[in-house]
Amino acid sequence: MVRLGSHSVTQKGIGWSIGALGFVTVAYFAWYRLPVPLWHWANEVWWHWIPAIPAYFLMFLAPIFTLVGASSLTAVDGAGARGHLWWEVVSYLGAIAVSVLILWSFTPAPEWWVNWHWWLWGAAVVGSATVSAAGRMFRTVHKVHAPKVRETFSSEWRFNHVDDNSPPALGIAMSGGGIRSAAFNLGVLHALHDKGILREVDVMSAVSGGSYTMSWYLLQPFYAAKAALREHREFKLDDVIDEMFRPDGRFQTYLCKNPRVVKGGVLAIVAAIAVDATTGQLLRAYAAAGGLVGQYNNSGLVRSEYRERLQELFQGLPSPDPPYEIANKIDSEEQLELNLDSSDFSCVTPVEYRELAEFAEQNHLPFFIFNATVLVERAKRHLLWPTAFELTADDVGSDVCGYRAWGELKQWEVSEHLSKGMSLLQWNRLRDKGSDWERRQHRWMLMANLAPAISGAAIGLSYFNPKKRPREMKLATWTPFFANLDLGYLLSREIWNRKGTLYVSDGGHCENLGAYALIKRQCRRIIIVDAEHEKADRYVFGGYTKLKEQLEQEMHLILTVSDIDSYLESAKGASKPTGPGAAVMTGEVKPLKSDPSGRPISVIYIKLGLDRNRLDSYPAHVREYARDNDSFPQDPTSNQSFKSEQFVAYRDLGRHVAANLNEIINKLR
C-alpha cells in the first residue's frame, strides 16, 4: 500500500470522504434549510432577534467545525490504527448526528414531529451524543507494550534524607473505602502523632478514601503557612499539626461538623443525575469531538459535586474562630480565570504538585503518592504493573505510559493572573495568543487538589474484577459511562509528548491498599491501614488476597501476615468464622526462595474491626455508636453521607486500634 507520511493514502481517503459527507449534511441544514425560516421567525417579534443573532453565528460556524473535526479521522496512527480509525468514525458520526438533529428541529418540515414526539427526538439527540463520546472514549484504551519503569528512585529517596542510596525507612499505605476509610485513617494518623511516629514517616501512599486523609494532612499545613505569611505571623509546623489533631480544635471540629461527601438530599441527587444523563451528554459530546479534555472532565454535575465536596471538607482551611468558615475559598477573579482557562477544577486556592512537594520537603513532611488506575486493553486489566497509575510529589505516570517529572511541565504553569492587577481585557488578549492558550488550558493537570477525586473515582471504566463474567463487568462499567455518571478523568497524553488522551479512575480498581507503591520503593517497614468493607459475619480480606497473588505472580514476592493467612484457612467451610484475634498484625514481604539475595520488608497490618465482646474497652464515642448501630464498623462504601457522631466513632476507633503501634515499630527497628 502506498504510504503518505505516517498514514496510508487509503486511510486519509476514508477520513476525508466521511468528513466531506458530514460537512455537506450539516451545511445543507445550516446554510440552506434553516436561514430563511429563522429570518421569518425573528421578524415576527422584536425580541426574537435576541436568540436569532447568536443562532445565525452558530449556523455559520457549524459546517466549518464539522470540516475541522474531520482532521481527527486522518490523524490516526500507531498500533491498532484500523481500530482507532473505526472509533474515530463512530465519534465523528455521533457528533454529526447531534448537529443535524438540533438543526433539523428548527426547520419547518419536522415541526409536527418535534411537537408531538419531542421525547423521541430528545432521546435521539442524547443517544447520538452518547455514541459520539463513547467513540472517543474507546480511543483512550492504552495498548500495553514493554514496561517503561523508573530507572531509579534515588530522587525520591533524597526527599527527606541526605543519603540518596538508602530506601525509605518507614512508609504508610492508606486503603480505599470512601469516607469510612478517611475517618479511620485519620484516627490512625492521630495515634501515630500521639506517639511521635507520624513525623518519622518517609513516604505516604493512599488510595481513594485514604487519599482524602492524605490530602488533608499535607494541604492543611500548606494553607496555614500561606495564611501566616499573609498575616505576617510566625509559622511553626509542629504547632499546626498539634492543632490539627486536637479533638476540640478548629480542624477536627470543622471535619466532624458535616462529614458528607455527597451534598444535598435525594431530590438534589436525582436532579443532578437527570441533568448529567440528558443535557450533560451534549456538553460531553462537544468536548469529546473537539478533543477538549478540560471541558470533558467538567461535563458532569455528579463528578463536579463530588470533587468540590472533597475539596471543601478535606482541603478547606477552617478560619481561626467559630463557626469555622473556609478561609482559603477561591475568589471570584481567580474562579473566572480558571473557568476561561477550562481549568475550573478547584473551589479552594489551587496548589500545584511542585509547590506542595517543595513545602513538604522543606518541612520534612512525607513524600506523597496518590494512586489511580489507567484504562488498558482488556487482556491486561487483571495485571498490576500496567494498570497502576501514580501522581507523586516528583512525577506523574505509570509503567505502561512512562513517567514525566512535574518540573518538565513548567510550560503549563501560569505566572500572570487576573488577581495580580490585569484587567479582563488584558488577560483575554494574553490568553488569545496561540501558544499561551495551549499552555493555559492544561493548568488543571498540575493541581494537587484534584488528586483525591481522581484516586477516589470509584465509578469508572478502569474497574476490573476477574471473578465476574464479562457481561457483568460491562454492565458495571459501561452503564454509568453511557449515563454520563462515571467519575473517571481524561488526561492529555501531551504530558508524555504524545497525541490523544488517557482515562484514569479509582486506584482501588487495580490495588486498593496502596501498598504496591511502597513495596516497589523498597520501604524497610510498611504500615498498611486496611479499611475496606467486610461482611459482618465473614471477613474475606479482598485487598490483601489480591495483592498477595499479584506480588507473587508479577514481582516474585511473597506477602505473609500469619494472622490473616491462618484466619482465611480456618474460615474455609465455616458458616460464621470469627475474625482475626488482633486488629494490628505483623508480617513481611520477602522474595521467593529461588531469590534469597533480597531483603524482606517488615509489614504492620492494621485492619478496621471491632470486638463487640469487649466494647467497654473502647472510647466512649465508639461504645455509644456501636451499641446503637449494628452495622458499625462496616457501613457500606456506598454510604458517603456520614453523620457527625458516625465520623467521630470511626476516627476514635482508628486512634484506639493504633494506640500501641509504637511498641510494634520499635521491635521492628
Describe the model.
It is a single chain. This protein has about 675 residues and is an alpha/beta fold. About 50% of the residues lie in helices and about 10% in strands. It contains 27 helices and 14 strands. α2 runs antiparallel to α3 and α4 runs antiparallel to α6.
Keywords:
669 residues, single chain, alpha/beta, two-stranded antiparallel sheet, 12-stranded mixed β-sheet
Mean pLDDT, to the nearest integer, reads 84
In this structure, how is the largest beta sheet organized? 12 strands, mixed
Low-pLDDT segments: 1-7, 77-81
Percentage of residues assigned to helices: 40-55%
Structural class: alpha/beta
Q: How does the overall form come out from the CA principal axes?
A: globular
Radius of gyration: 27 Å
Number of helices: 27
The percent range for strand residues is 5-15%
Please provide the count of β strands: 14
How far is it from the N-terminal to the C-terminal residue, by CA? Answer: 66 Å
